[in-house]
Amino acid sequence: MTKKQSWTADRIPDQTGRVFVVTGATSGLGLATTRALAHRGGRVILAVRDEVKGREVVEGLMAAGSGALPLDARLLDVRRLDLADLDSVRAFAARLREEHRHLDVLVNNAGVMAPPRTLSAQGHELQFATNHLGHFALTGLLLDLLAAGRDPRVVTVSSINHRQGSLRFDDLGGERGYAPMAFYNQSKFANAVFGRELHRRLTETGSPVRSVLAHPGYSATSLQTRDTRGLTRLVFGRIGNPLLAQPPERGALPQLYAATAPDVTGGEFIGPDGPAELRGAPARVRLSDAAADAGTGRRLWEVSEGLTGVRFPVTAS
Questions:
Q1: Could you give the C-alpha distances from 9 to 104, 189, 305, in angstroms and in order?
Q2: Structure pTM?
Q3: Which end of the chain has fewer surrounding CB within 10 Å, N or C?
């Protein structure tokens, strides 16, 4: 583990002229990421399910308050994106292609955690659909715009929970048995596998785009309370958040480091440097051996292409 002891958002290099897409940008890690990037001059496209809430967030960032500096409205754009609906993903990507000739960084941040079993618009289990399939499709549809960017990167936000996950290829939707946290862990494992497999394919084809993984440790966000129920909500939201979790501004540092630090290379995994990687400054951390397995990466890629209908302009040898 390589430690970055004193790295904070104040050390983000000047991002003037760079264009970022941040999914799930209205709260938690996404909002903290958006704020930090815009404060360094980056133009941020807030990819959100609720455009009204997105505009309210932008108004709040422009007004600032509580000692924070207001942001220039020209740096913040709100666009609707429902990652659980592949039609919405395609519409979002099509609009960006009309508006932009290049993108510089895609931060695959949005997610849902441990809801009751629910199906997406296309009939996929909601956590797998939102956390993985939507981001897989979005990345594929925007990859050529990213390849035209300056120091382009795809940052996929996984979790320390990826080390507890696996892919149930014979039951990805949970028809034969669904446990909310187990399927959350599966989706975060899929994020990790995807980020590493994307790195491998980008490298083999000589793409300028870097695929980097990040995780926030244990951060106090609405993720633990918005979708969860019963004991999970009690343990993670009511007990864990106040006692153990770090604030979103700290939890967002690994993905900010992955998105902006000059020394980041493709395939790296950035997380907190503290005990059990629950909190701390950004550092290079270990991806599980299972998530790094090339065979698992190829299989997930093929399954994801089949479920989304999105083919990337990169192939595996």
A1: 19, 27, 36
A2: 0.91
A3: C
Query: How does DSSP assign 242-307, residue by residue?
Result: HHTPBPHHHHTHHHHHHHH-TT--TT-EEEE-SGGGSSSSEEE-PPPHHHH-HHHHHHHHHHHHHH
Q: 């754009």: which residue's tokens? A: 77
| Residue (of 183, 182, 163) closest to 173 by Cα position | 183
Question: DSSP assignment, residue 76?
Answer: E
The burial of 32, by beta-carbon neighbours within 10 Å (0-12 exposed, 13-18 middle, 19 or more buried), is given as buried
The C-alpha atoms of residue 82 and residue 47 are separated, in whole angstroms, by 8
Give the residue numbers annotated as catalytic, written as ranges.
184
- Structural element, H or E, at residue 105: strand 105-108
Half-sphere exposure of 42 (CA within 13 A, CB side): 28
Radius of gyration of the chain (CA): 18
Tokens read off for 246:
């770090």
Which pLDDT tens digit goes with each residue over 90-125?
Answer: 999 999 999 999 999 999 999 999 999 999 999 999
